[in-house]
Amino acid sequence: MKSAPLIGTVLGGPAGGALGSVVSMVGSALGLEPDNTTPDAVDILLTQNPDALLQLKQAEMANRVELQKLALQSDQMYLQDRASARQREVDVVKATGQKDVNLYVLAWTVVLGFFALCVVLMRYELPGGSNEVVFMLFGGLVAGFSTVLQYFFGSSKSSTDKTNLLARNAHTPPLA
Fold first, then answer.
1. What is the DSSP string of 56-93?
2. % helix, strand, coil for the chain, step of 5
3. Is this structure's pTM higher than 0.90?
4. Pairwise CA distance, residues 37 & 90, whole Å
5. Cβ contacts of residue 43 below 8 Å, gap of 6+?
């Protein structure tokens, strides 16, 4: 939501669906009934009524501290989700003594599928009427490919490496 970035950040984050207080704040600021406070209703109202944008901005400024707290909670939820994915991998290795092969098979499948589809799209002409389906598939592979890259090479990768290094050093005596 470009017109009210703080509200947009809170509503668009991982906690967006559970933030009824923000939705009701937006609805009351715009004079919408609680049952009619949907993203579509807000968009329609903002395009039809220029004063609604001003009202939304005023509500954002009046509730700035609370919205910043909710944005912080949303960011914390996102980071906890990433940490739990990393922790799952650590727990599997601790429990079984080996890495989860399924994770790597899935990652390689996405990466190979991405590059295979890139080659196909560059070398061959698509049959008529199949563009939409192929491009939807390509969009899904792009999202999966970026997720794989982020998981294995993103900022949390260095955190995992540091954790593994610390765990290894915990078993060796300190240098004198």
1. HHHHHHHTHHHHHHHHHHHHHHHHHHHHHHHHHHHHHH
2. 80, 0, 20
3. no
4. 43
5. none
**Distance, CA of 152 to CA of 22 (rounded, Å):** 35
Question: How far, in Å, CA of 129 to CA of 71, rounded?
Answer: 43
Tallying the residues shown for the chain, one arrives at 176
Which token pair is 74?
């949303």
Q: How is residue 5 written in tokens?
A: 């970035």
32 closest CA partner among 2, 61, 56: 56
**Which of 19, 17, 35 lies closest to 27, judged by CA?**
35
Q: In this predicted model, what pLDDT tens digit does every residue of 104-154 receive, in sequence order?
A: 899 999 999 999 999 988 998 888 888 888 889 889 999 999 988 888 887
